[in-house]
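Researcher: Let's do a round of design. I'm pasting the structure tokens now; please hold your answer until I've finished.
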């Protein structure tokens, strides 16, 4: 199943209070400013109060949180702004504010004053008027002026217990410090611009604020032209507090992103002229809907309605039925044979397209026999000749060859990629640990490089309130490194690659893993085996994967990353399925991260992009990676190739991979040449013809136990025995002399100890005159040194060997 991006389309969720359906166009979403049941007036109605009365309120409003010397400054600043607004007509200060033009965007108040002190006081005076609810500025007017600490100052003046509870809940949330500040900022601006208290803030009101920020490019922290929306973190916190009505989505994304369309909406996404054909496509897709998932249904609708019929109507505008002349069909076939802006690239999926169209016609012919009154009028000869789809088999073989070649190219490069992510993770973690122990502004040396812990005003401000971010400057290059962010990115990159290559799961299954996916069972010998339960995905079939020690370490590291002092378990969050256009229930998904948009499950596209970035990084130092990348599904094919070609029975491999047919698993094996594969498959076919059918079945529990016990018995002190599955040791457990022994590079020190012991024994044998013993020890030493060389070579997989320059032999 191909990965797809998250598009802003249609969602069928109904907000509790509106009762209206949300549209795919964000400008038409059900969003309106919240209205106040009673106007919030912390110091009474000051809309028509005198200048001095308002100035006195501004002087005492922050009396408990500021020094008394600030009263005079606030009084002067507020008086100055009110004096300026008094020049404009209006009954209330709000009327004068609007009449002054200051409520328009890009018109900051400070530009109305000529002198420096007056410019500085303008922001302070305006902030006092906003917090006292004297004026209600528009969103763009607020963002045109500069305010420092507006959220906390606004909260203090309001005296709103609900607002105080929101600030406390946000501070105690799992959001990062940056997310918390953005959340407080968003809610404060929503209350200010809509003139309401927190208890009056509705989901539609916060959605309106978010859409306004997106419309005018005012989302905090978003770059120009970004599609980011404001209010994600605030929405989650308000939902958790119970401020929003029951039935409101837990996340703002559930309102903004798409939901499933009906079949009629899918067809009408590609307008066609003929009403009868339009209804036919609707009826056809409705009948096929039960046997297709939503992603396949949308693909079929796009192919039949857009790629097929829309182009037919462009070629023959008067065409009103499915009976196409050969001339029209040939023009259509020529039209769809090429793609691209210049229409110069052959369509690689042409065979599949012709098969789908032919299948559409054959379905109608078959259904016409069952229900002639409904389908008979549309049962006409198929315009796609049979001989044109025969080449589809050849096209599938060519595609299989391309895939096999892709895996052969990447198989020897996988260890290099794994080593890269491990090294990057180790270095970033070590740099973070070293930098976190250094005071702000101090220099330190790590791994032979000199760094300085940054000491900016932002760092100092965050250090006063909580904890300063760990950022360092590389003194050699001047590069600023966000150590925490770099370590987190490196850790997740390592987790993506390791989980994919060690489990063979699909990318959709990876992001669906939760804490509940980890199970365990006790074997008859008392050993506890960790299991990874894979939720139904492509084949709608749940399966269980026994976790190796390496895979268990990765999963445990991911869980430890989610658990902190404040959070003792994996956070609950929802996941949006871009294929099915649906939101899951709140679950402890393992692959989730926090961002400015709130906490959410990492998307398959993000993982694929990160892996491509890793390959580009390697290409800078390794020519083999130039122009080459790994896709998430490549790891699945490499996993299948490894387990099958290391002696695992293919039907057990099919169970691990979740394949319903072992032929599918055989297609994943991409090590041999096609000729070898063909002859081997012919051999298997002949063998199956003479063997009992019952032998080709799913693995039994006894077979699983035997399989696991075999690999347990292959573990030895120095490494691993590579003897084939199901075979006993043929060398009487003389491991050092056995060619099947694979020494773990980590056991090189043990080899040195064995060598010293053998040397001591040889000296004793020489003293005692044990010549036979000396011969045996010398042979063992020879094998030991060969094993050491092999272990050293495996420890350096990228090391090249100089074979010298070939030369011609002299003629006799």
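Researcher: That's everything. Go ahead.
Model: Designed sequence:
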């Amino acid at each position: 199943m191909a990965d797809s991006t998250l598009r802003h389309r249609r969602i069928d969720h109904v907000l509790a209070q509106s009762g209206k359906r949300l549209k795919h166009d964000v400008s038409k979403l059900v969003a309106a400013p919240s209205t106040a049941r009673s106007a919030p007036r912390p110091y009474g109605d000051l809309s028509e109060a005198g200048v001095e009365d308002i100035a006195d309120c501004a002087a005492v409003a922050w009396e408990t949180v500021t020094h008394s010397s600030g009263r005079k400054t606030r009084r002067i600043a507020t008086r100055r702004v009110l004096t300026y607004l008094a020049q404009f007509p209006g009954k209330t200060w709000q009327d004068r504010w609007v009449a002054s033009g200051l409520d328009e965007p890009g018109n900051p108040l400070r530009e109305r004053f000529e002198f420096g002190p007056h410019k500085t006081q303008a922001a302070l005076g305006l902030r006092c008027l906003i917090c006292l609810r004297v004026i209600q500025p528009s969103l763009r007017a607020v963002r045109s002026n500069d305010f420092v600490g507006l959220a906390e100052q606004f909260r203090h003046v309001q005296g709103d217990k609900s607002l105080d509870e929101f600030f406390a809940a946000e501070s105690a949330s799992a959001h990062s410090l940056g997310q918390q500040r953005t959340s407080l900022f968003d809610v404060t601006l929503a209350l200010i611009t809509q003139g309401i208290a927190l208890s009056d803030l509705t989901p539609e009101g916060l959605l309106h604020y978010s859409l306004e920020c997106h419309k005018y490019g005012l989302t905090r922290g978003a770059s120009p032209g970004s599609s980011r929306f404001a209010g994600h973190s605030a929405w989650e916190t308000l939902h958790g507090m119970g401020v929003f009505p029951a039935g409101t989505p837990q996340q703002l994304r559930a309102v903004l992103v798409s939901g499933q369309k009906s079949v009629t909406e899918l067809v009408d996404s590609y307008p066609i002229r003929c009403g009868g054909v339009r209804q036919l496509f609707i009826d056809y897709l409705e009948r096929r809907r039960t046997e297709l998932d939503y992603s396949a249904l949308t693909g079929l609708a796009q192919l039949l309605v857009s790629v097929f019929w829309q182009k037919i109507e462009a070629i023959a505008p008067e065409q009103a039925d499915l009976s196409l002349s050969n001339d029209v069909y040939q023009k259509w076939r020529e039209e769809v044979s090429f793609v691209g802006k210049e229409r110069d690239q052959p369509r690689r999926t042409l065979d599949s397209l012709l098969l789908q169209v032919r299948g559409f016609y054959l379905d109608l012919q078959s259904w016409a026999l069952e229900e002639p009154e409904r389908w008979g009028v549309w049962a006409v000869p198929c315009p796609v000749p049979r001989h044109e789809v025969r080449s589809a088999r050849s096209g599938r073989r060519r595609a299989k060859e391309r895939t096999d070649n892709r895996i052969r190219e990447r198989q020897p490069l996988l260890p290099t990629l794994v080593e890269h992510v491990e090294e990057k993770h180790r270095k970033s973690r070590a740099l973070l640990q070293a930098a976190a122990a250094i005071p702000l502004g101090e220099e330190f040396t790590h791994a032979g490089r000199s760094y300085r812990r940054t000491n900016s005003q932002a760092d100092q401000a965050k250090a006063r309130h909580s904890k300063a971010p760990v950022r360092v400057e590389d003194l050699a290059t001047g590069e600023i490194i966000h150590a925490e962010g770099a370590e987190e990115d490196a850790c997740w990159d390592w987790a993506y690659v390791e989980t994919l290559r060690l489990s063979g799961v699909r990318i959709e299954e990876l992001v669906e893993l939760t804490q509940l996916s980890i199970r365990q069972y006790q074997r008859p010998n008392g050993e506890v085996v960790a299991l990874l339960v894979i939720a139904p995905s492509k084949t709608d079939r749940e399966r269980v994967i026994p976790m190796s020690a390496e895979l268990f370490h990765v999963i445990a590291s991911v869980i430890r990353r989610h658990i902190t002092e404040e959070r003792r378990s994996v956070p609950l969050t929802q996941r949006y399925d871009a294929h099915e256009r649906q939101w899951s229930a709140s679950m402890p998904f393992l692959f989730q991260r926090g961002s400015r948009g709130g906490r959410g499950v990492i998307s398959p596209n993000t993982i694929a992009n990160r892996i491509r970035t890793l390959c580009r990084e390697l290409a800078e130092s390794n020519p083999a990676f130039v122009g080459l990348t790994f896709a998430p599904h490549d790891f699945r094919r490499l996993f299948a190739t490894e387990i099958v070609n290391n002696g695992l029975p293919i039907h057990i491999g099919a169970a691990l991979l979740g394949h319903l047919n072992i032929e599918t698993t055989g297609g994943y094996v991409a090590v041999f040449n096609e000729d070898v594969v063909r002859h081997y498959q012919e051999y298997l076919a002949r063998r199956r013809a003479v063997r009992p059918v019952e032998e080709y079945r799913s693995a039994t529990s006894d077979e699983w136990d035997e399989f696991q016990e075999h690999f347990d018995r292959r573990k030895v002190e120095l490494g691993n025995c590579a003897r084939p599955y199901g075979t006993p040791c043929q060398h009487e457990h003389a491991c050092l002399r056995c060619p099947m022994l694979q020494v773990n590079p980590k056991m090189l020190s043990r080899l040195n100890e064995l060598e010293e012991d053998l040397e001591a024994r040889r000296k004793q044998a020489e003293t005692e005159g044990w010549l036979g013993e000396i011969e045996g020890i010398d042979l063992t030493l020879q094998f030991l040194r060969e094993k050491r060389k092999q272990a050293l070579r495996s420890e350096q997989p990228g090391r090249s060997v100089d074979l010298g320059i070939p030369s011609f032999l002299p003629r006799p």
